[in-house]
Each structure stands twice: as C-alpha cells, then as structure tokens.
Amino acid sequence: MAIHEEDPLKPRLFPLFVAALFASTPALAHSTSDAGGGFVTGFLHPILGWDHVAAMIAVGLWGAFLGKPAVWLLPVTFPLVMALGGAAGAAGVPIPGIETGIAASALVIGLAVLLAARPPLAVAAIIVAFFAIFHGHAHGTEMPAAISPLAYAAGFVIGTGLLHLCGIAFGVLTRSKAGTVAVRSAGGVIAAAGVGFLTGAL
Fold first, then answer.
1. pLDDT per position as a tens digit, 22-53
2. Which end of the chain is more exposed for a tag (fewer CB within 10 A), N or C?
3. Does residue 142 contact residue 38 with C-beta atoms inside 8 Å?
4. How far, in Å, CA of 9 to CA of 181, rounded?
C-alpha cells in the first residue's frame, strides 16, 4: 500500500518523528560492564539497549503486518542468524560498522512498516537476517567474558524473542483500519529513532 499525498498518516507522523529525534535516552546495549553475568545478563542485554529494542520490535511489527507466514518466519530468522553473528563475535571475527548496522536496522525496518512495504517473503527474510548479524555480533563480543557463555547466549536469544513477540502483539492491530494507522505510526517512530541512533542523538 503506497502512501499518497492525501495519506492521513503524514500529519500524524510528523510530531512523532520530531519527538523521537529529540529524545535523549542513551542506548545502553553495548556497555561491557555487564559482561560478567550469565543468563540474566544475556536476557537483559537486548532489553536495556534502546537500539536493540527498536529493531527487534520492528521485526515483530513487520512480520505481523505482512501476515502469515512472515509473522513467524521473520521473528525466527532473526534470532537464528543473530546466534551466528554472536558466534562470530565470540570468536573475534571482525565485522565492520557494527553500531552503524544496528542503528540502520531500526531505520530500514521501521521504514518498511511505515511505508507498508510488502516485498517477496525471501527478500524480507534476507533484510532481517542481514541486520541480525550486526546485533548478534554486538552480543557475541561480550560472551567470552561471561561466567557462562551458553547461558548468556540463551538469555539474549530469549530476550530477543520476547521483544519480537511484543512487536507481533502490537502488529495484530492491523486487523482494523485505525490499528493499521497505529502500527504504521509506530514504524515511523522506530525509523526516526534509527536516524537518532545513526546521528548519535539517541
């Protein structure tokens, strides 16, 4: 569904973009001070980082917006590929632009929700998988220092899954016209947050 000049979302989204762009809450996902924990630390790692939260909720929103089978395929693809990225990070494999990739994930997937993008399922899955690598690598670089790396990994995968479920639960609102406006507006807020992450404003 394309956005036309008369699209009612435009006047509603502008203040949301402004609010998100000027928010001042810092992203906490990549501090190494919490690297000594196990399951609980891993579980909290994605939840306490706003850049992770925004992208993972966006994945759930987009999956719900696209409907079956994307509603389950995208949230399953993300943590599976994220685990591979985590393994690469734990092994010390360098991947350039990790922070940029994480920030861009919120922008791109948020825009996909805002613009009601409906690419082929394989394309949507590839986009999600691509960004999952960056998120996983950010988690994985901290795993070797954890007391229990496997417990840490299980924690961040489960935490990620719960964030996806939050996005899916909100995305179910697309069953109504007003709900669709709300979901697409949420995508706009996430995209604006992504701009903030990229520019260092958030």
1. 333 334 344 444 444 578 888 887 788 888 89
2. N
3. no
4. 7
Other C-beta atoms lying within 10 Å of the C-beta of residue 49: 22
> What's the whole-model pTM score?
0.76
Yes or no: say if 27 and 202 are a contact pair by the CB < 8 Å rule: yes
- What whole-number distance in Å separates Cα of residue 139 and Cα of residue 85? 8
Q: State how far the Cα of 179 lies from the Cα of 189, in Å rounded to an integer.
A: 15
Nearest one of 23, 15, 29, 16 to 134, comparing CA atoms: 29
User: 200: helix, coil or strand?
Assistant: coil
Residue 63 and residue 71: Cα distance in Å, rounded? 4
Conformation bin of residue 67: beta by default, left when phi > 0, alpha when psi is -120 to 50:
left
Q: Output the CA torsion 173→193→47→64 (10° steps).
A: 20
Residue 97 contacts by C-beta under 8 Å, 6 or more apart in sequence? 134
